[in-house]
Amino acid sequence: MATSGIIGENRVNDPVTIVIFGASGDLTHRKLIPALYIAYAQDLLPEKFTIVGFARRDYDDETFRTMMADSIKEFSRLPTDDETVGRFVSHIRYHKGDISSMDAYDDLRTKFEDQEAYPENRLFYLSIIPSLFETAVRSLKESGLVVKPGGGPWTRVVIEKPFGRDLESALALNSELLRHLDESQVYRIDHYLGKETVQNILSFRFANAIFEPVFNRSYIDHIQITASETVGMEKGRGGYYDEYGAVRDMVTNHLLQLLCLVTMEAPGDLSAESIRNEKVKVLNATKLDIRKEISDAVFRGQYGGGTDGEGGRIKGYLEEDRIDPESNTESFVAMRLAINNWRWAGVPILLRTGKRMARKTTEVAVQFKVPPLQLFQQVECEDDVCDITRIKPNTLIFQIQPNEGIFLKVGTKRPGMRFVVEDVKMDFSYSGTWNKSLPEAYERLLLDTLHGDSTLFTRSDEVEAEWRVVQPILENLNALKPYTYPPNAWGMPEADWLFHGVEGAWRNK
Ligand SMILES: NC(=O)C1=CN([C@@H]2O[C@H](COP(=O)(O)OP(=O)(O)OC[C@H]3O[C@@H](n4cnc5c(N)ncnc54)[C@H](OP(=O)(O)O)[C@@H]3O)[C@@H](O)[C@H]2O)C=CC1
Ligand SMILES: O=C1O[C@H](COP(=O)(O)O)[C@@H](O)[C@H](O)[C@H]1O
């Protein structure tokens, strides 16, 4: 039984067959296979395991193995050696089939009769477009490839986000999943939860007694959560993205998960259920901070075209491949939320995420209130030009990526005759503390599924609560026409309005 997300580097003991649906796709070759390889190279996979790649393309075992070996060499986070890669890919097979055809499942079941080659514990990883989830799970059940838990060999199913398109479809998807599977068999993956720095939010808050007493409305002015990307529409993604957009692609999963971790109450223990119960409670208390109109609380944007500084042209969102030139889908969104509970009432929570922004960064910035008495003057210097300002508030920054770490901005006396204060950064950075590369999110999450630890996966009621938060946006898209923002910017100035009545502004760094 799973008791803790803190499994670390335990080897998986159960022999297992891992079936990856969508084996010829981008996620499989860039993330899943390299992550499994690293687990293998670190001796964390069981002695007996088989990986089956499932897709429609016409490969045989050998071609597929060669492709996967190439992917490992290209995308592995650690150096590879040919011998280990060769041994690893010898565990891989290819199964050609269409998810919508029962024959594909029947053929797989026939193969699985050879229990020596295909161990009976089974992990099905659905790395496919969301519209195929229900068909895949229903067919797996009907073909007898998954069985409800009951003490014998286990079956687990991993589902990639997005888990639906809105509240209604998320409810329908959950009910379909739970018609065929037990909740304990479903692993809804949100790769942000596999990031070391995201997990560290919980350790930082609840392993240290000094911060928790000030993590509330009495001391905190507001919280800003940013996930900005410099990329536009990556190759082959336009079709998917234009159908989903930034709210569904990033907010209903990654950003709301970050919000949960930084605002939830301490769980009674570290079991998956205790942590997820606390996340659901805080999500249920979270609402858009609408004063009069929804357009007070949400700003959507699309990047326009521009130049890249080297004479090249950057395409605007509406000019990208497989994007409807009249699309109303957002590539940027900023919103203001309120958490209606005792701890956070009145503390604005500001979220923003987008493509083609000025920098790739993901951070959670917790800004404290300004000191009650302005005893000192603050100095702020840039390029040797200094200004005198009001005392700045402290900010605690969880830097998720890049330059992973935790930083606290504090005012300190500037050396010299005058009694003035300047902001300095007290910092902890992973690279300066531990001289090793951080595990990729998928490495951790895949091992957790094999261990049966669902702590870092999203429960059905959590998913539903996430959709409830954004549902008013999805129902009012016409009132929230996207503004155009320039490429390589921090979004559009209109979104600054979200700071009304707040001591501060978006952190543009
Ligand atoms: N790529 C990424 O970085 C991320 C992806 N995700 C999620 O992961 C999932 C997969 O994404 P990604 O790999 O990018 O998608 P791709 O479009 O690259 O791959 C889709 C895969 O599904 C297979 N497929 C499609 N239809 C069928 C069918 N009827 N029967 C059998 N196989 C089928 C395709 O293979 P074939 O055509 O050979 O059948 C292909 O292998 C999605 O849910 C996405 O949202 C989540 C986070 C990041
Ligand atoms: O899930 C997704 O995440 C990526 C960003 O992930 P990160 O780990 O690089 O921050 C995003 O590009 C993509 O659109 C989305 O589907």
From TrEMBL:
GO biological process, one term: pentose-phosphate shunt, oxidative branch
EC number, UniProt record: 1.1.1.49
Pfam families the UniProt entry points to: G6PD_C (PF02781), G6PD_N (PF00479)
Pathway named in the protein's UniProt entry: Carbohydrate degradation; pentose phosphate pathway; D-ribulose 5-phosphate from D-glucose 6-phosphate (oxidative stage): step 1/3
Boundaries of every Glucose-6-phosphate dehydrogenase NAD-binding domain copy: 19-200
Domain of life: Bacteria
Enzyme class: oxidoreductase
Alphabetized UniProt keyword annotations: Carbohydrate metabolism, Glucose metabolism, NADP, Oxidoreductase
Record has Cytoplasm as a keyword: no
The reaction(s) this protein catalyses: D-glucose 6-phosphate + NADP(+) = 6-phospho-D-glucono-1,5-lactone + NADPH + H(+)
Record: active site: H254
The keyword Oxidoreductase is annotated on this UniProt entry: yes
Domain Glucose-6-phosphate dehydrogenase C-terminal: 203-506
Amino acids binding NADP(+): R56, D98, I99, K161
Residues that bind substrate: H191, K195, E229, D249, K355, K360
GO molecular function: glucose-6-phosphate dehydrogenase activity; NADP binding
Entry's Gene Ontology cellular component terms: cytosol
Family: Belongs to the glucose-6-phosphate dehydrogenase family.
Task of the protein: Catalyzes the oxidation of glucose 6-phosphate to 6-phosphogluconolactone.
Protein name as catalogued: Glucose-6-phosphate 1-dehydrogenase
Taxonomic classification: Bacteria, Pseudomonadati, Kiritimatiellota, Kiritimatiellia, Kiritimatiellales
